[in-house]
UniProtKB/TrEMBL annotation, chain A:
Claim: Cell membrane is one of the keywords in the record: yes
Localization, UniProt: Cell membrane
Bilayer-crossing regions: 45-68, 88-112, 118-138, 159-179, 210-232, 253-279, 291-311
GO CC annotation, single: plasma membrane
Protein name: Unannotated protein
Membrane topology qualifier: Multi-pass membrane protein
Annotated source species: freshwater metagenome
Keywords associated with the record: Cell inner membrane, Cell membrane, Membrane, Transmembrane, Transmembrane helix, Transport
A GO MF label: transmembrane transporter activity
TrEMBL record, chain B:
One Gene Ontology CC term in the entry: cell envelope
One function term, GO molecular function aspect: carbohydrate binding
Protein's UniProt name: Unannotated protein
Pfam families: Peripla_BP_4
Keyword set, alphabetical order: Signal
Record family assignment: Belongs to the bacterial solute-binding protein 2 family.
Gene3D superfamilies, per database record: 3.40.50.2300
Membrane-spanning residues: none
The Periplasmic binding protein domain, residue ranges: 39-292
Principal localisation: other
Subcellular location: Cell envelope
Length: 318, 357
């Protein structure tokens, strides 16, 4: 039983190991390491970790969402546009409203994919343009804001590193764990592994996919709200959403989610965001051209996909 | 043989004398002993020639100041969350001052406020930011827009259609330039912007747009936000060698074209937007750390140059050895002390000294 647990968690253990090495490297270069530095790390990974988690849910279910960065940017712009200058209570209510919007946007994307039978990659590529257009309409140029008390509850202040840590872990506990243990969770792995056999076993494939896209959207929404809290502004740029989307896929893959679907969890992607944060930060501090960090991240992603595929194939043969 | 030997000896003597002076200067100047400041640089756009030159100007001026021990440059293409992370990363590294070229006028404010709370001086360079208690060192972008517009209006005889090629929507410099441009245009009712486009300060995109939009008789003048020479190139093919006035920046190739095509009737209006404003930011940072009083806004006011009026100056701004999009202003009076060679070398104080010096 214990061996089982070690085997199941081996990927996460590997990621923790790499992240620890990179983290120690980065910390060794700092004059001091205290709670402010810990908060700096957490703020560096928070938006992308949440986005990777949302992407992971969709990939596990056999899909991929190229609009996830745009969903996050849309919520970021909505929040920054309508929360600026509002009271704490109003901002909390608006947060809930916008998270609902993010769920609906996700569900709608899932609905279009299920009903049209067009590949996920095509539909979400198209919706990404629509969502960025909407974001630009809502917040034409960078700006806006959020109630400071709420922002500090989400992203902390000074050396208070607990708020961003809670923002990172809470969705994992409140959304992922119940989903993982539910019938939808089992259906998610089933349709990700093999849609046809899942269908033949009585799984409602379409409805499950819609639900997964909705939950993925919710994570994107939380990421957008976190982004607003960190930057106290909204930026409607396609470049931001593109980078975020690509990083979310990289984060999910590095986090042990198989691109073929049906394999993975959410702890891995959350931890993988640390790696995605440390690589450019360390290289930058050595004055190395940041383009190289993209090469390393890209190469790492390919290696992981290759290695993951090999390991899984061997597992099947045995 | 004898002569060359003598020459060699003379050269050797000269080199040793220069070497001795340099060494003595190094010993005598108290500055080298007081090289303690750590300067952090956060730049939101890497791989852009203008920004690279800006960073080099910071490094070169820091090396010459004698007061800076280290310049840490965090330069990459990133969004505001990434740049905020970079600013925080600089705070954790214990820098004394941060020079930031912010990709967003307000999104880095929370991180900047933390830097200021930690006693770090924050200097915004090039793009203005809205964070309080920061110092701005920038080319006056409102004046940039106005000076170019005024010169363009004159070159167009105060009437006609303008192709208005802006920078990146939402960028502080673009908004400011637009303000300056429109304020001038209001004065001349016969001048009209008939087409407004954004190049995103992308050379390829600017060239493509110019190739699509330029047609004989359609426009009588072009205002660019610095993506200038591709427009002139597009005119050579699209307007069959007929030129209309173009406002550009001090980009090396545009400066060169302004000079070389003047005889063919091309009116190039050069409005310098010096990348070495980075060197000025470094000087301001050192002044602030020395405890000197510096105004919150330090603006370099540009003047529009034309070949008809400023022939010698424009000729001196062209560097055959440099790239097409090299920002060819190489010194700022009262701010920078480096020579062009030192700027091109791009050496920070902590880098290994050049073997040649």
């Amino acid at each position: 039983m214990n061996m089982m647990l070690v085997k199941r968690q081996s990927w996460n253990i590997g990621i923790v190991l790499i992240a620890t090495i990179l983290g120690a490297w980065q910390i060794s270069r700092l004059p001091v390491f205290g709670s402010y530095e810990a908060r700096t790390f957490l703020l560096g990974i928070l938006p992308i970790a949440l986005l990777s988690m949302g992407q992971a849910i969709i990939i596990i279910g056999g899909g991929i969402n190229l609009a996830i960065g745009a969903e996050s940017v849309l919520i970021n712009c909505l929040a920054a546009r309508f929360m600026v200058g509002k009271s704490f209570i109003a901002c909390v209510l608006l947060t809930l409203l916008f998270l609902l919007v993010s769920i609906l946007v996700g569900a709608l994307t899932g609905l279009i994919i299920s009903k049209s039978k067009i590949a996920d990659i095509i539909v979400t590529l198209a919706t990404s343009f629509i969502l960025i257009g909407l974001a630009m309409y809502i917040q034409p140029s960078p700006g806006g804001g959020m109630n400071l008390t709420l922002a500090q509850m989400i992203s902390g202040k000074g050396s208070a590193f607990l708020p961003p840590l809670i923002t990172l872990i809470l969705p994992l506990v409140v959304i992922w764990l119940p989903l993982y243990r539910s019938r939808t969770g089992i259906a998610m792995f089933a349709i990700g592994s093999n849609k046809d056999s899942a269908f033949l076993s009585g799984v409602n494939v379409d409805f499950t996919r819609i639900k997964l896209y909705a939950v993925g959207g919710l994570f994107a929404g939380i990421s957008g709200i976190a982004l607003t809290a960190i930057t106290l502004s909204g930026s409607p740029f396609a470049s931001i959403s593109n980078t975020a989307t690509l990083n979310s896929v990289a984060g999910a893959v590095l986090g042990g989610v198989a691109l073929s679907g049906g394999v993975g969890g959410l702890t891995g992607p959350a931890l993988a965001a640390l790696i995605l944060y440390f690589i450019p930060t360390i290289l930058l501090n050595y004055g190395i051209d940041p383009a190289y960090s993209q090469i390393i991240t890209g190469a790492l992603t390919i290696l992981v996909v290759l290695a993951g595929g090999l390991i899984r194939n061997r597992g099947k043969k045995n | 043989m004898k002569l060359s030997n003598k020459r060699f000896t003379a050269l050797f003597a000269a080199v040793s004398v220069v070497g001795l002076i340099v060494t003595m200067a190094g010993v005598v100047t108290p500055a080298s002993a007081a090289a303690t400041y750590k300067i952090g640089v956060s730049n939101s756009w890497a791989g852009n020639a203008w920004r690279e030159e800006m960073v080099c100007a910071i490094k070169a001026e820091a090396s010459l100041s004698g007061k800076v021990a280290k310049v840490t440059v965090l330069s990459r293409n990133t969004d505001s969350a990434g740049q905020s992370a970079d600013v925080r990363s600089l705070i954790t590294q214990g820098v004394n001052a941060i020079i930031i070229n912010s990709g967003d006028s307000s999104a880095n404010n929370p991180a900047i406020a933390e830097a200021i709370a930690a006693g770090i001086k924050v200097i915004a360079v090039d793009n203005s930011i809205t964070a309080p208690n920061t110092t701005l060192v920038s080319n006056d972008q409102v004046a940039y827009g106005a000076a170019g517009a005024e010169a363009l209006a004159k070159a167009m005889n105060y009437k006609g259609n303008i192709l208005y090629m802006r920078g990146a929507s939402g960028a502080g410099a673009d908004t400011d330039r637009d303000t300056g441009f429109k304020s001038v245009l209001k004065k001349y009712p016969k001048l009209k912007v008939t087409k407004e486009v954004f190049t995103g300060w992308d050379w390829t995109k600017g060239g493509q747009l110019a190739n699509q939009l330029l047609a004989p008789g359609k426009f009588q003048g072009v205002w660019t936000s610095g993506i200038d020479y591709p427009v002139v190139q597009a005119m050579q093919t699209r307007l069959k060698g007929k030129y209309i006035p173009v406002v550009g920046a001090d980009n090396n190739k545009f400066v060169g074209m302004t000079a070389s095509l003047a005889s063919k009737g091309f009116v190039g209006i050069v409005v310098p937007n010096p990348a070495i404003v980075g060197g000025a930011a470094l000087k301001v940072a050192v002044d602030l750390l020395d405890g000197k009083t510096v105004g919150a806004k330090n603006l370099l006011t540009p003047v529009a140059l034309t070949y008809a009026k400023n022939k010698a100056l424009i000729d001196s701004l062209y560097f055959a050895s440099q790239d097409a999009n090299f920002s060819s202003t190489v010194s700022l009076k009262g701010y920078t002390t480096f020579t062009p060679a030192q700027l091109f070398r791009c050496r920070a104080p902590q880098d290994d000294p050049e073997t040649t010096s």
